[in-house]
C-alpha cells in the first residue's frame, strides 16, 4: 500500500535564519502592520522559554492586544529545524527573533525565561524594531550565571535530532550572562528606541542579569498586565 | 592578463612545508570533521589545534618537524573551516566537543596538545575540564588578556554596541546564501596578507593552495561565509587566563610580542601572574602572532623539549 503523501501547508509561516527554518505561528490574526492605522495595532511576538515551544493560542493576558499575535519556535524547539551538532547561544536565538521581526516588522515582544533574555538582547540590537520588550518568568531565565563555571561537555536530556534539541537544553542552560553585558543591551534600547519605557521587567525571579537590568534608568518594573496595557496603548 | 603558471597550485611550494601523510573524517555528533596526520601511524599522537579563520594545513611547517621528533601528529579543521562540514550553528562549546570527538577517535590515553591562538584558548579550557586527555599542553600566542576599554562616553559606547549588533544581525540575514569572493592565488594571498602582514607572500600563496578550493571562477577560501570575524558576546578575554593557574600537566606558553591584527596584544606582565607552578614561558620579542609559521624550528624545538621524543 502506498503511503499517503500530505500536501498540507504547515500551519505556520516558515522564516529562514541562516541555515535554520523557523516556525512562526500566527496565534491570532490582525491587521497587517502596513495597513494598520494606529501604532497600537502592531504585532505582539511571544518568545518561549528553554525547552518549550510556542503556545497554540493567545494567552489570556494578551486578549486585549489590538494587533496580531504571533509565537516563534526558537532553533531546535517546536517545529523549527533541529540542527546537527549543537552550537547554541542566546545570541543565536537573538538572530531567530531578528528573522521574525524581518517578517513581521516592528513588534512588541513578550519573552518567557530564556525568551525574556533573548527579548532583551534583540531590544538592544534592533531598538527601532522592538517596540517594547516584556521580560517574564519561565524556563531558562537564569542561564549559567554571571561568570564561567567548570565546563561539562555533555548533551542534555531528550532525544538527539528531536525538538527540543538536547544540545539546546544543555548549552542554553549554562550560557554566561554577566550583568554589565545585559545592561549594555538595556541601555541601547533606552537610548536608541525613542520609547519612554522600551523594556519592562515583569518576572518575579531576578537572576543577577535581570536584577541589574531592572535597576537601569528607563526600564519599567511592573506586573505583566500593566506592561501589556502600556504597549497596547502604543506607548 | 593573469599568468596561468602563477595560478597553478602544483607550482606553489614553500621551503620546509609538507602535506600530511593521511587524511580522514571523524563524526562529531553528526558533524564531519576533517583530520590530517603527519608521521608514523603507529607512533603516539600529538594534537594540533588551529586558530580562528585558520585551518589544519596552517601547520604544514610545524607538524612535519614534530613528526620528525617521533610523534604521530594529528590536526583537524574546526567546523566551518577547511574541509570540515559547514554547520548551522557555531559556538566555542561546539568546537570543544568536536575536539573531544577527534581526540577520542585517535587515542584513549593522555597526549600532548598544542593550540595556536583560538586553538590555544580552546585547549586550555579543555585541559581544565578534561585534564585526563592531556599529557602536556602548549599554548602558542593564545593568551588573551583584558581588552583595552576605549576612553569614550557611555552613550557613544552604547552606539558602538548597537552598530556592532546591527552589523552582525544584518550579516546573518544574508550570509546563508553568500559565497566567498573568488580570485587568483595571488589575489587571495594578498587579501590574507592584510590580516597576516608579517607572513611572507610565498607562504600566503602556499596557504591558498591548501586552504582554498579552485572553482571555475577562481579560488575561494574554504571558510564558511556564515562566520564573521570579530563580533560581540558575553565572553571576556581574561576568562581564559583564569583557567591557567589550575593546569596540572606540563605547560608551555609562548607569546609573540610584535603586534598585529589577529593577535591579542597581550604583554608578559599580563600572563606571569597566572602561570601554573613549573610552567615554561617563552616570550619572543621579534615575532608576531603566528609564531609557528615565523619560527617553526624554534617552536618545534620548544615543544619537543617539553614533551620529549617518544621511544
Mean of pLDDT of chain B: 92
How many β strands of chain A by DSSP?
Answer: 8
Shape of chain B: globular
User: Span from first to last CA of chain A?
Assistant: 59 Å
Number of domains of chain A: 1
Helix content of chain B: 25-40%
Q: Which term fits the overall shape of chain A?
A: globular
Structural class of chain B: alpha/beta
List its traits.
heterodimer; A: 235 residues; alpha/beta; Rossmann fold; 8-stranded mixed β-sheet; 6 helices; 17% strand; globular; disordered N terminus; B: 311 residues; 2 domains; two-stranded antiparallel ribbon; 10 helices; 10 strands
Kindly summarize this structure in a few lines.
With 235 residues, chain A is α/β, with parallel strands linked by helices. Helix content of chain A is 27%, strand content 17%.
Structure description:
The complex is a heterodimer of chains A (235) and B (311). Chain A is of the alpha/beta class and 235 residues long. Chain A has one domain (13-145, 154-232): Alpha/Beta hydrolase fold, catalytic domain (Rossmann fold, 3-Layer(aba) Sandwich). Chain A has 6 helices and 8 strands; from the N terminus they run E-E-E-E-H-E-H-E-H-H-E-H-E-H. Chain A has an 8-stranded mixed β-sheet with strand order 1-2-4-3-5-6-7-8, sandwiched between helices. In chain A, a hairpin with a 2-residue loop joins strand 1 (13-17) and strand 2. The longest helix of chain A is centred in the middle third of the chain and has 15 residues, at 90-104. With 311 residues, chain B is α/β, with parallel strands linked by helices. Chain B folds into 2 domains: 20-146 and 236-307, Alpha/Beta hydrolase fold, catalytic domain (Rossmann fold); 154-221, no CATH class. Chain B is 33% helix and 18% strand. An 8-stranded mixed β-sheet of chain B has the order 1-2-4-3-5-6-9-10, with helices on both faces. The longest helix of chain B has 21 residues, at 154-174. At the A-B interface, helix 1 and helix 4 of A face helix 2, helix 3 and helix 4 of B.
Amino acid at each position: 500500500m502506498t503511503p499517503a503523501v500530505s500536501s498540507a501547508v504547515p500551519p505556520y509561516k516558515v522564516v529562514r535564519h541562516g541555515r535554520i527554518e523557523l516556525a512562526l505561528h500566527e496565534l491570532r490574526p490582525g491587521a497587517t502592520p502596513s495597513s494598520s492605522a494606529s501604532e497600537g495595532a502592531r504585532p505582539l511576538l511571544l518568545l518561549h522559554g528553554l525547552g518549550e515551544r510556542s503556545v497554540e493560542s493567545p494567552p489570556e493576558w494578551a486578549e486585549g492586544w489590538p494587533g496580531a499575535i504571533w509565537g516563534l519556535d526558537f532553533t531546535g524547539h517546536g517545529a523549527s529545524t533541529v540542527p546537527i551538532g549543537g552550537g547554541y547561544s542566546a545570541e543565536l536565538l537573538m538572530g531567530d527573533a531578528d528573522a521574525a521581526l524581518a517578517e513581521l516588522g516592528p513588534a512588541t515582544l513578550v519573552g518567557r525565561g530564556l525568551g525574556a533574555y533573548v527579548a532583551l538582547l534583540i531590544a538592544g540590537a534592533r531598538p527601532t524594531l522592538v517596540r517594547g520588550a516584556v521580560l517574564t518568568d519561565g524556563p531558562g531565565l537564569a542561564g549559567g550565571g554571571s561568570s564561567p563555571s567548570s565546563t561539562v561537555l555533555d548533551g542534555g536530556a531528550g532525544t538527539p535530532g528531536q525538538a527540543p534539541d538536547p544540545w539546546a537544553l544543555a548549552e542554553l542552560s549554562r550560557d554566561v550572562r554577566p550583568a554589565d553585558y545585559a545592561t549594555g543591551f538595556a541601555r541601547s534600547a533606552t537610548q536608541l528606541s525613542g520609547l519612554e519605557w522600551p523594556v519592562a521587567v515583569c518576572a518575579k525571579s531576578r537572576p543577577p542579569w535581570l536584577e541589574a537590568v531592572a535597576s537601569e534608568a528607563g526600564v519599567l518594573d511592573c506586573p505583566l498586565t500593566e506592561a501589556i496595557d502600556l504597549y497596547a496603548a502604543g506607548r | 592578463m593573469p599568468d596561468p603558471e602563477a595560478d597553478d597550485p602544483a607550482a606553489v611550494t614553500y621551503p620546509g612545508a609538507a602535506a600530511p601523510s593521511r587524511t580522514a573524517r571523524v563524526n562529531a555528533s553528526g558533524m564531519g570533521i576533517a583530520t590530517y596526520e603527519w608521521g608514523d601511524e603507529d607512533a603516539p599522537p600529538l594534537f594540533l589545534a588551529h586558530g580562528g579563520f585558520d585551518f589544519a594545513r596552517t601547520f604544514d611547517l610545524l607538524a612535519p618537524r614534530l613528526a620528525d621528533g617521533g610523534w604521530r601528529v594529528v590536526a583537524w579543521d574546526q567546523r566551518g573551516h577547511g574541509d570540515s562540514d559547514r554547520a548551522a550553528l557555531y559556538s566555542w562549546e561546539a568546537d570543544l566537543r568536536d575536539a573531544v570527538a577527534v581526540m577520542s577517535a585517535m587515542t584513549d590515553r593522555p597526549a600532548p596538545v598544542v593550540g595556536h591562538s583560538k586553538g590555544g584558548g580552546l585547549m586550555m579550557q579543555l585541559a581544565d575540564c578534561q585534564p585526563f586527555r592531556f599529557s602536556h599542553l602548549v599554548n602558542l600566542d593564545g593568551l588573551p588578556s583584558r581588552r583595552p576599554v576605549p576612553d569614550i562616553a557611555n552613550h557613544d559606547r552604547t552606539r558602538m554596541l548597537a552598530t556592532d549588533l546591527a552589523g552582525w544581525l544584518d550579516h546573518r540575514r544574508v550570509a546563508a546564501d553568500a559565497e566567498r569572493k573568488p580570485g587568483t592565488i595571488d589575489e587571495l594571498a594578498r587579501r590574507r596578507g592584510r590580516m597576516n602582514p608579517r607572513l611572507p607572500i610565498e607562504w600566503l600563496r602556499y596557504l591558498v593552495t591548501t586552504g582554498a578550493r579552485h572553482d571555475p571562477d577562481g579560488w575561494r577560501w574554504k571558510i564558511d561565509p556564515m562566520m564573521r570575524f570579530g563580533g560581540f558576546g558575553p565572553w571576556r578575554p581574561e576568562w581564559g587566563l583564569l583557567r591557567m593557574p589550575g593546569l596540572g600537566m606540563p605547560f608551555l606558553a609562548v607569546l609573540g610580542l610584535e603586534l598585529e591584527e589577529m593577535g591579542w596584544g597581550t604583554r608578559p606582565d599580563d600572563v606571569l601572574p597566572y602561570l601554573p607552578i613549573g610552567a615554561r614561558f617563552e616570550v619572543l620579542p621579534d615575532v608576531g602572532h603566528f609564531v609557528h609559521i615565523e619560527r617553526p624550528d624554534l617552536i618545534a624545538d620548544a615543544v619537543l623539549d617539553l614533551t620529549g621524543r617518544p621511544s
